[in-house]
Amino acid sequence: MFTVLKDLGWFFHRERKRYTIGLAMLILVGFLELVPPRLLGDSIDQIVSGSVTWDSLMRTILYILAMLVLIYYITYIWMHRLFGGANLVERLLRSRFMRHLLSMTPPFFERNRTGDLMARATNDLRSVAATAGFGMLTLTDSTIYLATVLGAMGFLISWKLTLAAIIPLPFIALAMSIYGKAVHQRYTLAQDAFGDMNDQVLESVAGIRVIRAYVQERLDEKRFADITDDVYRKNLAVARMDALFEPTIRLFVGLSYVIGLGYGMILVFRNEITLGDLVSFNMYLGMMIWPMFAIGELINIMQRGSASLDRVNETLSSPQDVQDIEHPEAVTAAESIVMEDVTFRYPTSQTDNLQHIHLSLRRGETLGVVGRTGSGKSTLLKQLLREYPSGSGDILISGTPIEHIAAEQLHSWVGYVPQEQILFSKSVRENIRFGKPDATDADIMEAIRTAAFDNDLGTLSDGLDTIVGEKGIALSGGQKQRVSLARAFIGDPDILVLDDALSAVDARTEARIINNIRSERSGKTTLISTHRLSAVEHADRIVVLEQGRIIEEGTHSELLQRGGWYRQQYERQQLESGLSSGEVS
């Protein structure tokens, strides 16, 4: 149960001053709270014996008031320290969790659902934080404070009465142990179900247009209702166990009161304790109610925190699928790109997705990659991003194996525009500036011109300051592509990778973008995969892929002369273009 505290040992060590002060103040308050009942008991004995005076009574009242003010001030200190620590550990763990996610590559996100990761970053971390705050409070109160009250009852009143009153305590400990194990198991299942629900919400929101287009709203509602019902049932199972804690403790605390009052009266009649002692004892017994509850809360909070920390650590302990070597080589620039007999397979694939690829590209050259859908075009380009563990063969940049180059340096050379454009819920300006944080408005406008997006600015409600919405929902497909292109252009990367990034623009806009690339990126390397062959006619070299193999290679004119797949596809597209022009005219 207490493994969660051991796992958080690094934090308690780091914040030892905070917790030393906080726990010391908490313990001090526990001792100070013992004084008022004792003073009250003494006053009752003075009243019974007839020795009480106005001065002694006022002095007792002033002492009690002064003690209450002191307890109030010290309580503020320990609450600020302990619960401030809870907020701090949540912030630290959330930052660590986010850094870990940002360091992960696609295989990790293929294994883990987004909704579940969100649940771990929110609910689970909140439960862990509660362990560092409320958990430390209940741990202290259920041990040190409980022992302090018991000591006061035994030493200041009567050990015989104290031992009789605590007979129910072992039964509380046994019940809490049984309940705690059940809470851990059920809470883990509830958090997993919450992750499933998060994932369903994300999918429904992201795919709302498709859901409406296929009139599947009612089916999606039913699917979501089933998931929320599962979450409800699993959280209800946790609540059932939570509900057993308080009645169980109340039952045994009530027994302690009965024993304390009954046996205490016998001791008063025997003159072994005074009436003031019995009043003080019952006040101390009342003070034990919270520590007894704290035992249940402690087990509950520790089991929840343990289950949540296990889930968080499961994510944090996931190793990076692609890691830098210990001492990467320093490469000043990407002068050449060479692939020698590269064969690659995705972790989830049963066959090789690339087979025996041989390529050589010098700085300043443009490579076109074409082929049927699923032929491996995107897979070939992604080899330069090192998103997956390397296959066989060698990929060399400036003569250095790509595995020997630090990922940060490699990515600093590459500007990448994927097939599916991801825009942030910010303005057009901020989305483009993402590619170069210190870019000026002049730089942004130049990138926009290169991406042929300048004519569209006038159609946007606030120009560059137009909020594009979540994932760019406020823009058309072609506009999203061109904003993504501008984001890549603004950084002027040494290697520009366009993965079917012109599919949503018309032929005239595509021609303008290609011309801009040719003029603006002189001396820089460009790789373009596309289904529209007009986008790569200008390329220094074009490769045609089929089932992960290069079946044709050459310039545009060379491939036309060979009469293979490239020529057939080119003539078909030219015919389609001619028919479209004829229809328009």
From TrEMBL:
Keywords: ATP-binding, Membrane, Nucleotide-binding, Transmembrane, Transmembrane helix. InterPro entries: AAA+_ATPase (IPR003593), ABC1_TM_dom (IPR011527), ABC1_TM_sf (IPR036640), ABC_transporter-like_ATP-bd (IPR003439), ABC_transporter-like_CS (IPR017871), P-loop_NTPase (IPR027417), Type_1_exporter (IPR039421). It comes from the Bacteria. Residues 21-304 form the ABC transmembrane type-1 domain. PROSITE patterns: ABC_TM1F (PS50929), ABC_TRANSPORTER_1 (PS00211), ABC_TRANSPORTER_2 (PS50893). Residues 337-572 form the ABC transporter domain. The chain crosses the membrane at residues 21-40, 60-79, 128-155, 161-179, 249-269, 281-301. It is found in: Cell membrane. It is a multi-pass membrane protein. One of its GO terms (molecular function) is ATP binding. This is ABC transporter ATP-binding protein.
